[in-house]
Backbone:
């Protein structure tokens, strides 16, 4: 664009076609937002996901750490089984704590 002596870009006169296009685009975006509006997540499903995460993640994490320690110390089933059961116990304990938490 051409610049004048002050170094500023000259302002163009308003164009009715561009304003009309902006208005139509805004209306269409609002309609699309309403059409594809996200539903609120179900709080029950959130609790189910937390419970499953604790019951799967605890034993799995314990087993992986136990397997790593068994590989490091060359004691195959010892740490694997020990940390697997500890992970399961921690998972059950977390589910117990989650079930005793007051609901909102």
Residues:
């Amino acid at each position: 664009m051409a610049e004048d002596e002050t170094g500023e870009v000259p302002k163009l006169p308003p164009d009715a076609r561009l304003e009309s296009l902006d208005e139509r685009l805004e209306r269409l975006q609002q309609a699309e937002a309403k059409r594809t509006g996200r539903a609120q997540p179900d709080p029950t499903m959130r609790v189910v996901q937390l419970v499953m995460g604790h019951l799967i993640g605890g034993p799995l994490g314990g087993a992986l750490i136990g397997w790593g320690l068994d590989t490091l110390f060359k004691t195959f089933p010892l740490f694997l089984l020990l940390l697997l059961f500890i992970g399961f116990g921690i998972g059950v304990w977390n589910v117990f704590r989650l079930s005793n938490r007051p609901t909102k």
In short: The chain is about 70% helix and 0% strand. The chain has a mean pLDDT of 88.
